[in-house]
Amino acid sequence: MERNLLMLNITGESKWETAADIFRGQLNSHPRTAQGQFWHKLIYPNQGWLDGIYMGEVFYAQYTHDLQPDNMTAWDDITSQFQLMFENTIQNATAPNNTHLMYHGYDYSHVAVWSSPDRGHSPEVWDRALGWYMMALVDVLDILPASHYGHDVLLHILQTLTPHIRDAADRMSGVWWLVITQPGRAGNYFESSGSAMFVYALLKAVRLGRVQDPDGSIFAAAKKAYGYMVQNWVIPDVNGTMSWNNTVVVGSLNLEGDFDYYISQPIDINDLKGIAAFVLASIEYEKL
Fold first, then answer.
1. CA distances from 213 to 65, 129, 164 (A)
2. 31-287 domain in CATH 1.10.3720.10?
3. pLDDT digits (tens, 9 = 90+) for 9-35
4. How confident is the model at residue 261 (pLDDT cuts 50, 70, 90)?
């Protein structure tokens, strides 16, 4: 979807705006919870997932910026999507295995088998879902007007989450567990796509001054994680290129959404969800 806007800016050809308009129009009819959160998909009624924020709001923000910059209703709605997701999934003080981070998703109707009694959230913090949300935060902050109140809302969420992302990294390796709420549990492992997403988001947040890092600990954490990624997940190929390892293929809330589900999913080499995140992390690493 973002490609249509990129090509419109590059070529000026109206077909790209037409395509972007079609995608944007779909948001007008996409169902929402009673609070206003977009459903993750039509097949998941009343469910909001962290992954969906990156899928929808980055395009939504770029479209509004490029084609409807004075549409305050749209900017308000984009802000609300981030805020509702944060409020409904952030771990509270009494949560077991509390990392002060965000669960994979929530069911506003509380009918999913995994939904908690209090807010309907899922049981675990899955690294890539949180990675999508963090990347969406740092990317949309580049797009959303600084004069709009939503800029401060997103900035506050980013500044709240960043130190907890840093602290959730494994102390020895520096990278992040697949299921962040179950560090070291048998079957859990260090996962590459979520780790790369975190490195990208942390480095970009520090570079642009979105998050203060007076003792350098955020940069140090990202640098340590990047070093582990290069040493352990980059596989040199005989033709002079490279491959990327240890990306989990999928993570969903269509079943139990529990620890056993996440660790049962296969990993893949050169999965685009991992290798693209590593490219973004590498760009930020070189900039700093």
1. 29, 24, 13
2. no
3. 666 777 878 888 999 999 999 999 999
4. very high
Q: What is the dihedral of CA 42, 131, 58, 276, to 10 degrees?
A: -100
Q: Domain map of the chain by residue range? A: 31-287
What amino acid is encoded at 140 in this protein? V
How far apart CA 28 and CA 51 sit, in angstroms, is 20
pLDDT tens digits, residue range 75-121?
Answer: 999 999 999 999 999 999 888 899 999 999 999 999 999 999 999 99
What DSSP string describes 201-237? Answer: HHHHHHHTTSS--TTSHHHHHHHHHHHHHHHHTEEE-
**For residue 32, which phi and psi values (nearest 5 degrees)?**
-135, 160
Confidence of residue 3 (pLDDT cuts 50, 70, 90): low
CB-based burial of residue 252 (10 Å sphere; 0-12 exposed, 13-18 middle, 19+ buried)? middle
Helices (H), 68-146: 72-89, 127-140
The token duo for 77 is 């709605």
CA distances from residue 14 to 2, 71, 216 in whole angstroms, order as listed: 15, 21, 46
User: What is the pLDDT at residue 121?
Assistant: 98
SS3 content of the chain, % helix, strand, coil (to 5): 50, 10, 40
Q: Is the sign of the CA dihedral 284, 285, 287, 288 positive or negative?
A: positive
Q: Which amino acid is at 128?
A: R
Task: Tell me 105's DSSP state.
Answer: E
Question: What is the tens place of the pLDDT at every residue in 28-64?
Answer: 999 999 999 999 999 999 999 999 999 999 999 999 9
DSSP, collapsed to helix, strand or coil, labels residue 74 as helix
Q: Is the pLDDT of residue 236 over 90?
A: yes
Q: What average pLDDT does the chain have?
A: 95
* Contact call for residues 183 and 176 (beta carbons, < 8 A): no
